[in-house]
Design goal:
Blueprint: H1 27-56, H2 60-76, H3 80-104, H4 114-143, H5 154-162, H6 166-174, H7 178-204, H8 211-228, H9 230-240, H10 251-261, H11 266-269, H12 273-311
Amino acid sequence: LYTENHSSSVLSSHPAKENHHKRWSSASCAVGAASSFATTLVTFPVYKTIFRQQLHALSITEAIGQLRQEGLAGFARGIAPPLLARTLQGALMYGTHDNLLRAFSDRSPGPYSLRDRAFAGLLSGFLEALAFGPFERVQNVLQDGRTVRRFPTTWSILEEFNSYAPKERLALGYYRGLSLILTRNGLGCALYFSFKDPLRDGLSDRALPRWLPALVSGSVNGTAISFLLFPLGVLIANVQSQVGKEETLKLPAAAAAVWRARGRKATLLYRGGSLLILRAGVTWGLTTAIYDFSLFVSWNRTELKGSASLLI
């Protein structure tokens, strides 16, 4: 079980902490990429349905009906950006967090504190937002049914953004809504990494199968955080679906427009909340379980190789 602390993100007594002259560990990057790739493929249908609900305040039935009308090609539209982005995103998020924690432990020996886990998560979330904000921007434009004729392909969107002046290319093009994405990703990662491992380690003491504590921990944390930040996701989806100067609203105006479109009811801001629970639970549960188990196997192999070299 994980009580032996072989997972690198929480190893309060990880031997690597005694060998910090190694500047960067790539194991968590590779495992994070693989786990994110797998879960993105599994959960994309649910994600796209939620996006339509966020954008148009549709019920589940209405969103699914809209997607059915667009056919298989329309349904698959927009899958490439999240697949690529979240694979790289997993590598950056887990890799950065793991290595930042190892760096922090140079200054404060002993178990990783809640403050260190939260701060490392916050920084990894900020880096994630800066690196992959443009992917989300393109994805949101592609998945908006109102833009199909105007922007039939990813290339057509890139051409539009590149036609702007340099400053507007970032503010109105690739990084529209950046402050919102920084807030969501930074806060989300800080909360996720703060509570993921303590919950997993607590469940590990109950003699459960090795994969189950990580699955439950990821599901519970991912669901709770996603539900908490869901209204912010609604605002991001609406802000990033705007293309062109004539369609651009400033943040307060965009927030007011979303509030009016939802009938000034908080419950309508949570349209898609039921599917959110399913998607977040599956996504973060699988990602966390695959990540922790794969890193556990990787660490065991490293220990075996080290033992064999000593025998030789």
